[in-house]
Fold these 2 entries.
Entry 1:
Amino acid sequence: MTRDKKLIVGNWKMNLNTHEASLYLHKLSGLVKTHRDVEVVLAPTILALQSLSLQIDRRQFKLAVQNFYWRDHGAYTGEVSAPQLRGVVEYALVGHSERRHIFGETDKDIRNKVQAAIRNDIQPILCIGETTTERVNNETIDTINDQLIGGLTNVTSEELKRITIAYEPVWAIGTGNNAVPADVVKAVKAIRSQIKHLYGVAAADDVRVLYGGSVKADSAADYLAIDGIDGLLVGGASLDAHVFEEIINKAHKGSKPDIKSRGGK
Ligand code: PEP
């Protein structure tokens, strides 16, 4: 894990069927230039992962799973496990607010998923963030701390190097009501300070932290400029190839692309 690259993650949520996902990837690969200082990760529907993993140029894009079950195998009808995803995805979203709040995932589920991902060589992107009520009650920092402690229980310093933290205030996700940079500055400080408390100064400096919540092409640069922010988790705006490409370009420091990508294999 390195902090010299910006990480831009596109979460397609429950949109695009397998065919549409393939067409969209084709369009995106024609548009997006590969930059050495930017890593781009796509999180399509689980159904499309296998086919996209064959279509994708891994120098241009990596894949993430949006969700999985933490047990490795067994009688869990309808579930997909981390060993089944091993080799298909590089990353896994864990603890996304839609999983926590719509599907009732607890910190225990989330820490089990973090462990399962690491055990299976998949890098977890641990999503944390406060609800509107917690924000109004001035509980943002407490929520961040609780969710970090809850999600990282039993994670060693060595394992932490494989984990990315995404700060995603629940009130900002899919609402168009994005956080102002000052809120993100406070949150990222709180995250690094809690990591310092749990793992020490070096870990606090090294851990990758993303912002997510209604990011658009015109707001991306403001978040990327925040000291301590290493990238973006983008939902709705990642479904428009031109907008997503613009966001990726904002993450690239120079104006000229390093390599012109020609698309899928
Ligand atoms: C997300 O899905 O994590 C997200 C941030 O969504 P949106 O950008 O649509 O708010």
Entry 2:
Amino acid sequence: MIPTLEWLPNGVSFLDQTKLPLEETYVLATDYQQVATVIRDMIVRGAPAIGVSAAMGVALGVSQSKATTIPALNAEVATICETLAATRPTAVNLFWAIQRMRDKYDTLVAANTSITKIKAALIAEARHMYDEDIAACKAMGAHGASLLPMEGTVLTHCNAGALATCGYGTALGVIRAAVERGHKIDVYADETRPYLQGARLTAWELLHDNIPTTVLCDNMAGSLMRLGRVQAVIVGADRIAANGDTANKIGTYSVAVLAKEHNIPVYVAAPLSTIDLATLHGDEIPIEQRSATEVTHSQGKQITPDGADIENPAFDVTPAKYITAIITEHGVLRAPFEQSIRKMVEAATTKPELATA
Ligand code: MRU
């Protein structure tokens, strides 16, 4: 299995995704501030992976606290959570995971738990979230595999794979599950400018699993669709609004519009922790703006003239009308998404066990 992140006795270990595919090196974060830096600098990235990393950051921060009273620990927990929440704004899994750790902490405090036991319980909770994330990816694979063609080419954008989760992946998990069930699938991986998650990460991890992968420049998808060379599109998500509008890596919207024009289904694979019922529609989703240097430079070399103005939104929103189905760990959602999403979230809250397809 690809070791995206791992809880260790002396900190949290991360596969350094800024160095892939040329170098497979690891960064050890030994305190919560370092975990925050690892998330902000995209050493770890991808919505579910960011969420579990933040949960581990909370566990690490609390476990290293020298506080001897609950009021002192409360103040530290607040700082830890604020620091981790300030890293990246779009993927809601980050805030979901921090809130879950916060809720766990509050419950333990309300039950008069000792500080030593609180520390152990928060570490256990973060590690449990890691296991749950892998189980959710496997369940998405089981629910979504049959939606992909028995034979054909599936296009994906960015990296929604093992590297973006604790293992197996969301969109790439569905592809993996289909391949495991005998589908003959080739993958088109959009290179995903400017950060090249597709060229560097998706190609790396699919080839690692011997899944045939062809890297495309982002501007090639439309032409290949017109030539009948794409049978389905599958992507991950950073935040899904209550009406199904989906924020994902910049460029996803263009791919979805092109797919609709060519009658190609567009699937979004994401765990329920990516759904944000408090965000009613896509226009409310905060979009991270990243540094101009990611656009002006490639491989450390300047590629634009001095003085050129630069845009670098890291995500875009695909309106729900372009999405054929949303694959979650609890099953497949279809339009009208407003109803289907709410119904599934409510059902999962009362009966959280995963149902497999
Ligand atoms: O900026 P990144 O690399 O964190 O963006 C990642 C994506 O957009 C993924 O598609 C998304 O998080 C889903 S990951 C399962």
